[in-house]
Amino acid sequence: MSMTKKDYVAIADAINEVLWQKDIDLVTVTVVSVALAEVFLKDNPQFQHNTFIQACYAERKEIDNV
Q1: How confident is the model at residue 61 (pLDDT cuts 50, 70, 90)?
Q2: Which of 23, 37, 39, 46 is the residue whose CA sits 20 to 30 A from 29?
Q3: By residue range, what is the domain housing residue 43?
Q4: Which residue pairs, CB below 8 angstroms and at least 24 apart, start in 29-33?
Q5: What is the distance between the alpha carbons of residues 62 and 4, in angstroms, rounded to a whole number?
Q6: Cα distance between residue 13 and residue 44, in whole Å
């Protein structure tokens, strides 16, 4: 069973939460975000890679308004 947009949004939000924590390793967050996006694209050809990455790195106020 493929994941849904709701699942992708929840994962991007979780990554975003980690991203804004103090003393976080941004390289690791980036590597994980891109790796997940590639897995999601293989699972679902309709997955929007760029939208997911943008959501991962959005400012908190942007995520809260989605």
Answers
A1: low
A2: 46
A3: 5-64
A4: 29/56, 33/57
A5: 21
A6: 19
Q: What angle do CA 37, 4, 48 make, to 5 degrees?
A: 40
50/66 Cα distance (integer angstroms): 16
| Tokens of residue 38, six digits | 């590639």
Encode 3-65 in three state secondary structure. CCHHHHHHHHHHHHHHHCCCCCCHHHHHHHHHHHHHHHHHHCCCCCHHHHHHHHCCCHHHHHC
Are 13 and 55 contacting, i.e. CB atoms less than 8 angstroms apart?
yes
Residue in this structure with the two tokens 């699942």, named with its chain if needed: 7
